Amino acid sequence: MGTPDTLIDLARYPVHQTGHARDIILDRVRADLGRDGCAVLKGFLTPAGVEILRAQAESVADKAFRSFNRTNPYFTKDDPTLPAHDPRRRFFERSNSFIPADNFPPASPLRALYEYPALSAFIQDCLEEENFYPYADPLADVIVNAADEGNGFPWHFDTNNFTVTIAIQNAEEGGAFEYAPNIRAGGENFAEVEKVLDGTSDTVRTLVLEPGDLQIFRGRYSLHRVAPLRGKTPRYVAILSYVEEPGMVGTPERCRQLYGRTLPIHHERAGQRADAYLD
Predict the structure, then answer these.
(1) Is the dihedral of CA 128, 214, 96, 250 positive or negative?
(2) Which Gene Ontology molecular function entries are recorded, alphabetically (predicted)?
(3) Domain membership flag for residue 275
(4) Is the pTM of this model over 0.85?
(5) Distances (CA, A) of 78 to 88, 90, 138, 170
(6) Which domain holds residue 161?
């Protein structure tokens, strides 16, 4: 129980087998990623798999780090030398909770998924990335976003080039995923980011994920947010992170913001990034 072959609907998504059925899925996912940097595999988990991961998330929900602060899309400090309308000076209320990766030991169902070679190989094939490695961050390689009523995540970019999420449990209301595809694929593109923040951009798309759906998202390049939640039921979303260089971890600043603590490895490898984006 709780192994990849019981968690994943392998009949619908034969990620473990080469052949025509897998190739058809790859073609669709690649087309979606190429068009807007986002692809969704509906019902990727079995109903039993959804319940197993929900129970696991529930069992460690009290380990979540809950934070309430104001952030800009880059998680950087205010820079008074910039104009007031600059995106780097636009701060929004952020209230969210993350269950760090060290709460999911090797034998746990969620980590079994993350370490399943067939799944990581399938995701790499979807992304068509030559350089593809598990995230080396012991707090952030496989985590669960646990959000309660009123929580939301304002406009931001991800630390990693690509992120895989699995919807586990939805709130009663709210929690829609909104994103501006590939807004900084060629550079920071502050002008278009400003339009998104102002609500005047025509690039924003809205996506509602259901429990069991798997999403592959290039969040390093697409500005995105999660709408505030309503109701007593918490929203659980698993986040599986992969990177383009071996040994990468989060910055100390980002880890403190998201998990409330750092480990020695975060300070030892601070500044080890594959690009020069602000965050």
Answers:
(1) negative
(2) metal ion binding; oxidoreductase activity
(3) no
(4) yes
(5) 7, 8, 29, 34
(6) 4-268
